[in-house]
Each structure stands twice: as structure tokens, then as C-alpha cells.
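Two quick folds needed for the group meeting slides. Do the first one here.
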Amino acid sequence: MSECQRVVNASELGSCVDASEITEHTCVVMDAHLSFCNAGEAINFSAIFTESNKTLNCEGGSIDHGWSSASSPSITPTSRGAQMPFVRFMDDRSLANITVQNCAMRGTFHAGIQMTRFFGGQLGGDGELGPDEPLPVGHNNITFEDLKIEGGQVGIYLGNFSEDVMMNRVHVDGTRRIAIYSEAGSQRITITNSTISNNLTREAVAIDSTYNSEVSNTRFINNREGGINLYQNCGELKGSVCPVERPTPPNNNRIINNTFENNGIASIQVASRQGRNHSLGWCDSLNGLPGKFTDTSINNVVSGNTITCTEGTGLIVMDGPNDISGNTIVASDECVPLEISTGGFDATKRDLLDGLEVKDNTIKSERPPRFRNPSDGVVFTQ
């Protein structure tokens, strides 16, 4: 709470909060349910969840920190507000049964919703998972519904070992890095009926070592560096950037019935870090030595999606077995509709693609699909 200029408890505000009660950026500790008294109001605060079983309902109003061209003229921007998320979960405990709904959020340079979870010595005596130690549970049974997040560094950051997080009708626009990031060990994460647009410097949705999850009925529009990447982070710069090892590959996920329009590098990449060269930095999976990392992303289903592109690649798959079926790819100008490859590896690693099935897809393209080192174990039909 040291970043907070002013701190109040939600219980002090009664059953609802009025804009007149928050005259400067305020951290509201969510020790009680809280809603906006008047729909349509803009209020300059950060909701800090320290307890489970709490709900924040903006009733159609806005959490506004003032640092946006769309900010309310009634909000005075402050440096404290610029560096605070709209919603933060305390990272030293696992919280459950929390709902954030009916909110527009704008005007911060921080993450929109920050669900970081640090375990420290809880992961064995040295802060690492032992070989027989069960996976811990992070924040769980969380609902984000009817939200609009504009700008910021990251839209929604799901911390390590998050479980059962449902994002429905969530619209994230114009984030500087990643719209939605799901961290290591997370599972049963769902994104549905949402829109992710105009993300700038990384893929819009990062499914990093996240499994048994689904993205469905969601639109990805004009995300410059890509739509969805599935990958297992190898533990780059462990201890400074990555607080825990990546114990779970992004397997058994479903990417179904989505629409992708002009998403730069690629609309979908499966095993997006296959063969990445780690000559610099520290990679846990390579024991800190230089080399190329073998990514893993298997038993995923990518089906029923519509992909339209004019540059980059529509769909890239670099691991198997996976089911890529029933998609429609319309590629024009410089866009390659489909790539099946071993990424940064040569033909000696072609067996990584064994079991991959790419079938019953409709491809309308001026350019042919690209094949790099496919194995005899790849099934490709149109």
C-alpha cells in the first residue's frame, strides 16, 4: 500500500461509492462488496482486494485515473494514479470468489487488472517446486464480466497458478504490451464473447504455460504483433523476470470460433518459441547455458476460427500432436495463410511435429501454405 496517496476501506463508503467521496486518487481496500451509487460516474480509485468473496460492480460507470484522451474532465490526473492499476489482488495470499463487473477503466500507465501471485518459500524450502510437490493454487474462481479496459501496459495480468478465471464480454483496447497474460501453471482460464484490439508491442493474448483453457467467440482486431501465442516460457532471466519455473506446458487448450482481422505477425501461433536461441540471458530449461529451447504445446484444438490477413502469417503451428481443423483463412497481399514448421530448428527436429493434424480448413490465398521440415507423422488435407 506504500504507493497509495490515500487509503480507505470499502466498508467506510457504505453500500455504494459516490464520485463526491473520492476527490483524489484513492486506494479502496475491498473489505466489503462495493458498487457505484450513480451509473455513468467516473471515479479515480484503485480497488485493492485483500479478502476473498468480494464483488466490485461499477454499474456502468468508469474507474478513471485521468491519463487518457478519453478521461473525464472531472478527474485530475496525479502521478500516483498513473502508476497504479485499476484493480490489484494482494500477491502474498491466494484469493477466491471475486467478481469485477460493469466497469470501464482508463487512464493508467500500469496494468489494468493485476493478479500477481508470489509464493516465495511456499514452493519448497528454496522457493522452487520439488519433483513430488503438488502444484499450488493461486487466485481462483474469479469473474471479470462486462469490462472495457483502455490503454495501460497490460490489460489483465493473471498470476502464477491462477485457476477458474472467467472473462466474459471483456474488451481490451490499445494496451502497450499484452492485452491478457496468463502466467505459469494457470488452468481453466476462459475468454469468451470479447474483443481484443489495437495492442501494440507484443501478442494480444499470451497463453504461457497455461493449460485446460479456452478462448472462444472473441474478436482480435489490428493487434500489431499477433493475436494468440501458446508457449512454455523456458524460465528466461529466472529470479528477476520469472518468479517461478514453468512446470506446465500449454496443453489441452481450445481456440475455437474466434475472428481474427489483421493481426500483424500471426493471428495464432502454437509453440511460438520453438527453437528460440538463448545465447544471451538465463534460461532455466537450458540450465543457464546457450542453446535453442524446445517449446511444448500439444493436444490443443484450433477450430472454427476465421482469419483474415494482409501481412505476416495467418496461422503458425510448430508442435504436435495438435488438432487444427475447420478454420477459414483468407490471406491477401503479403500474408502467408499457414505455416507448419520446426521454428528455429532444422530438419533434425522434424519429429516434434508428429501427430499434428491440419485438416478440413478452407484456405483462400494468393500465396501457398509454407512447410518447413514437416515429418511423415503430419496429416495435412484441405
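Then this one, please, same format:
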Amino acid sequence: MKKSIVILTGGGPAPGMNTVVGSIAKTFMANGYRVLGLHGGYKALFSESPNYVEFDFLMADAIFNRGGSFLVMSRYKPSDHDFECNFNLEFFKSNNIQLLVTIGGDDTASTANRVAKFLVEHNHTISNIHVPKTIDNDLPLPMQRPTFGYESAKSEGARLATTIYEDARTSNNWFIVCAMGRSAGHLAFGIGSAAHYPMIVIPEMFNKTKITIDKIVKLCVSSIIKRSIQGVNYGAVMISEGVFHELSEEELSNSGVVFSYDDHGHPELGKVSKAHIFNELVEKRIKQLGLTTKCRPVELGYELRCQYPSAYDLVYCTELGIGVYQLFQKGNTGCMVYIDHLGKVDPLYLHDIQDPKTGKIPPRLVSLESDRVQAIIENIMQYITPADYSEASKYIPNPEEYDFRTILNW
């Protein structure tokens, strides 16, 4: 029987998903393999009748440059009972599957290892190779290599953020914008930097003090006052949703946020409008201070996940797809595919980036010490400093409380 590989996608979408899948399909088909694609992620493997497609060239060629994911995604995480009672072993045997390719986050990669181990225990040995993706850019890849989808999401986010900023300038208003980013501020900082936002708030900035709602609001007001001193009555604040992860239960309760959680125990931040919440809190503070500034909320989240990939990700994801085949040919398994800046393909194993104590992959955070980040903080962002106290006192009675560095304890 002809040898086959199977591809599945897990978690949420990122620009370039189809580029990876299409590139894998084209490469393996050109080398004599059948390529199967599962709909529904891992859920399909625990079904009597998996929903799958067999790729041909025309199908792979039709999807490789599209946004979203042609293969329907799922956050399904199988239990031990699922493996014992529901795993479709016959699917792997009857299709002579030699390789399982997974595209997703660390949860998807960990489950792939469980599947491969289960198959070996039941006399069907396969390889498994994972392609890591996230628009959050928080996976600690070597040499600060971005995760695929990040550059495309940042580009689209910057386009939208620039339009929002133009609206602020046109109407002499302020906008409170929140961008996706589970625990790291890469996306918010990248978008805010590209659009020249006078205030960017990311969780990494609170490296010397506890994150509180009051401090976040003060940072917003600090920028509003600074611009008022300069005679500028418009602007926008970019806030990373990741700040919610560091807020205490008491702070969350006071904000009015009610979270639901996904199958992996992660707060489903996408169901809550952080921009609306922060906008309400900032407007309340503005009124208390007797200011007349008007604010409007905008959420940047799902708008960024399914857009068409940029040229950067089209090339990068094509290399990743080809890299899967190259690693497979070398006998690598239980690994992620990693492409360096020169296009060299290497296997990256979970244990190389996992915390040895917790088994979790620590997120890659924005480096506040980097010259690139400091350049934006020092030259593009605008906020109250001691030199502004005299002028700021014309707007607020206690300008020192809204000093950027005082708020952050820098």
C-alpha cells in the first residue's frame, strides 16, 4: 500500500496555516506519498469515522496563499479514557500512515507525542513532527526567530491601528485599543510602535511593580495630559490583553470581567471586550479629574487571525512545510521544525525549551532592555515626567501620581 502522512491543525488560526499545509502536501506528494488532512483536529482521531480529505496538487495549490485554515481546527484535548476506548487505530493502519504532522501550540505538540507513543505500544510506529504557530510570538524559538503568523498579524494590526489613529486625529478624540496577546506584549508593542501610539501598555512593563487597574488607567491619563500640554487633543492607547493575566482575582472582580475557560484551562479572553472595560475606567477617571477628553474603545483580535499571510509568512511557512519533509527524511521525530534566518532546518525538541520542573514552555517576553524597545519608549511614547509637573498641574492637581516612571516604579 502507498505510504501516507496525515496533517491536523489545533488551537486557533494564524496567517500562514494554509501555506504550511499546502507546502507539506506539495512536497510529500512530489515524493510519492498520499497526503491526508483531518478536519476537527485531534477529535477526528477519536471518532469511528474521521472527517478527512486526500490532497491532490490542485487542492494544495488552491489553498497555500489563503488566510484561515482549510483544515477545520479544534481545541479538543483527548483524555486517558479517550485513548483507551475511542482511539481509531484502524485509521492509521488501513491508510499506512508513516507520519503525523501537527500544526498548533505546545498543547497540540504534547498530544502528538502521546498519540505517537500510543501507536508504538499498539505495534504501529510512526514519526510525528510539529509546526509551532501563534500570532502572539511568545514561543522561545532560538535566535529570536518569530513564530509564523506574527508578522502578518502585526502588519494587519498596524494597518487597522493607523486607521484608528487617523480617526482620532480627524475627530479630536482618544481611542483605547486592546490587542491580542495571552501573556506577552509582542503583538501590542509591535502594532503600537508601527502606528506611533503615544502610550503602549504591555505586561512586561510591570517588571518592578504589581499590575493593577489603577496603574493602567494612570498610564493612559498620563499620555492624555502630556499631549494636552503640547496642544494635541487626540491620540490612542494600545493595551495588550496579557495584562489581564497578571491581575489579581480582586482586581478582576473590581473590573467587572467574568472569564470562561477553554479545554486547556486558558481564560477565553476573546469573549471579553477588554477595550470596552478599560475605556469605561479611563473615562470615569477623566470625569473625576474634570477633563473633557472623549474616549472610544476598539478591540483588535479576531480581525488578525484569519487574514491572508504577508509575503514574509508566505516564504517562511513554505520553508517550514518543506522543512517537515527534510526532517522526516533524516529520521527525526517527536520534534518541532525550526528554520533559522538563513533557511537552515533543525529539529527543536520540547524538552529543550520546557521548564524542567513544570514541564511548561515559558513564554518569550518582550525584552524591555533591548535598544529597539527602549527607542520607542524614549522617543515615540508620550507621558508625564518631572519636567512636566508645572504645566500638568493646570490639568490635574497631582501630576506626580501620573508620572510614567513613578507609576511603573522604574
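Slide caption for protein two: The chain has two domains: 4-148+309-348, 154-303+365-408.
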